[in-house]
Amino acid sequence: MSQTAQIPSHRKPRRAASSTRALRAGVTGGFLTLAVAGAAAPALAAEPSAAESTLEMPTLGSTLASSAAQSADATQQAAADYQLQAQQDQAAAKAKATAKKAKAEADRKAQEAKEAARKAAARRAAQEKAERASRTAERTSLSTASSNTTSAPSTATKATGNAATLINFLKAQVGKAYVLGSSGPSSYDCSGLTQSAFNQIGISLPRVSQDQSNQGTAVSLDNLQPGDLLYWGARGNAYHVGVYIGGGKFIGAQNPSTGIVERDLSYDPPSGAVRLL
C-alpha cells in the first residue's frame, strides 16, 4: 500500500454544477433571449466558465400587433358592408318612391279620362234628347198642317207635268216588295225607289238617303208641292226618304213588312223636304 493512500484530502468539495447560475435576459429582433451563467461542472472543465443558452419565443408586442391588424380589417369590412347596405336601402327607397309617384300619375290620368268620357256621354245624351224634342215638334207641326190640308185641299197640290209623270210611276210601284239594296223593277228599298222615280223625268239622284236629302232646295213642310222629296232624320244624314204626292200623302218603300205603300203624312211625319222640280 502506498504511504500516501491514507492521508486525508484537504481539498474542498466541489459544488454541484447547478449550484450557482446567473440569469440574464434581453430582447433581440423581437425574441426574448435568456442567458444562464455559472461555474462549470467538473465534467465540463474544458468548456468556458460562463455558458450562455438562448431561448427564443414570440414577444407579446408582436401578438398584440397581429390582433390589432385583424381587428382593423374586420372593422373596415364591417364599415364597407354597412355602406353597401345603406346604398341598397337608399336605392330601394328611391325606386319605391318613383313607383308610387308613377302609380299616382296613372290613377290621375285614368280618373281624368273617366270624367271626360262621362261628360262626353252626358253631352251626347243631351244632344239626342234635343234632337228628339225637335223632331217631335216638327212632326206635331206637320201633323197639324196635314190635317188642315186634308180638310181644305189646295189647287196647288195637284200634280202636273213632270210631277204627274213622277207620281204616276210611284203609284204603279205600290204593293211591290221592300228589299234592302234593291232598285227595281220588282222590288225596291226607300232610296232605290226614289232614284228610279226621278230617273223617269231625267233627274239623277245619288243612291243613298243621306246624299239624296242633300240635293235640291230645302222647303218647309208647311209649303209642300207634289214631287217634293221627303226625308227622315237630319238633312245630309237622313235614314229614310219618300215622295210627296199631294193631298197630304206620300209614297215610299217603308220596310220589309209593308213594302211600297201610299200613306198620309200623319202616318209617319217626315223631318224635312227638298224640292228638285
Please write the CATH class name of the domain at 133-275.
Answer: Alpha Beta
Strand content range: 15-25%
**The CATH H-level homologous superfamily of the domain at 133-275:** endopeptidase domain like (from Nostoc punctiforme)
Number of strands: 10
Helix content class: 40-55%
Helix-strand makeup class: alpha+beta
What does this structure look like?
The chain is rod-shaped and about 135 Å long. Residues about 1-5, about 15-25, about 25-55 and about 145-155 have low confidence and may be disordered. The chain contains four helices and ten strands, in the order E-E-H-H-E-E-H-H-E-E-E-E-E-E. The longest helix has about 90 residues, at about 60-150. It has helices at about 60-150, 160-175, 190-200, 210; strands spanning about 20-30, 30-40, 175-180, 185-190, 215-220, 230-235, 235-245, 250-255, 260-265, 270-275. The chain is of the alpha+beta class and about 280 residues long. It has a domain at about 135-275: endopeptidase fold (from Nostoc punctiforme) (Alpha-Beta Complex). The strands form three sheets. It has a six-stranded antiparallel β-sheet with strand order 5-10-6-7-8-9, sandwiched between helices. It has a two-stranded antiparallel ribbon with strand order 1-2. Helices cover about 45% and strands about 20% of the residues.
Give me some keywords for this one.
six-stranded antiparallel β-sheet, 20% strand, rod-shaped, endopeptidase fold (from Nostoc punctiforme), 277 residues, 10 strands, disordered N terminus, 4 helices, two-stranded antiparallel sheet, alpha+beta
